[in-house]
Amino acid sequence: MTSTDPFSPGEFDPWAETYDHDVAALNKFPFDGYDRALDTVVKLAAPEQGMSILDIGTGTGNLALRFARRSCELWCTDFSELMLEKARAKLPEAHFALHDLRADWPAEFDRRFDRIVSAYVFHHFDLSGKVNLCKDLVTRHLVPGGRLVIADLSFQDQKEMNAFAQSVGDLWEAEPFWLVEESLPALQNVGLKVDYVQVSPCAGVYSISA
Known about the structure:
This protein is of the alpha/beta class. The chain has helices at 9-12, 19-25, 34-45, 62-68, 81-90, 127-141, 158-168, 180-189, and strands spanning 52-56, 73-78, 95-98, 113-119, 142-155, 178-179, 193-200, 203-209. The chain has one domain (9-209): Rossmann fold (3-Layer(aba) Sandwich), CATH 3.40.50.150. 36% of the residues lie in helices and 25% in strands. Strands 1, 2, 3, 4, 5, 6, 7 and 8 form an eight-stranded mixed β-sheet that branches. The protein is globular.
């Protein structure tokens, strides 16, 4: 990765120490509805004891921990080593890999899972990147009948996003956030089934399957 990388581990490593405090204390953009979003992922994933769960971009392990409490087998990736250190402390029984979604999968993780989940990761990719990742994950890394469930920064359309951006002022940082009006048909056009739930003014959850 080069210095022009739009999102690099170097930007996330320093955040590891305060991340859990920040998501709990900041009830505005970008973390308005953070806990509701993670809880909704768990609800839509409908985990059962012993299921294998891949958590992409696990960060400090807040989403994975919810599945661990339901006696699932956790497989967690992140591209920040310092974030993974925090997650390992919370989830000593989980499998971990330092991995960038833009790179080839670690050999141990190149398998199929009962569920794949992710929170606040995919908005770093443009629409085609999101769609390609979702298709690859569903077709190559899910068991038949499995489900990919993604919580992320998401708005119904461009107009709604623009209005929200104005409402939060200097807190706004523009990235290729999900827009439901374009994301749903784009995912459906590559043969994926998708349902969507808005959980806060700036966050939603996508449930995707083959």
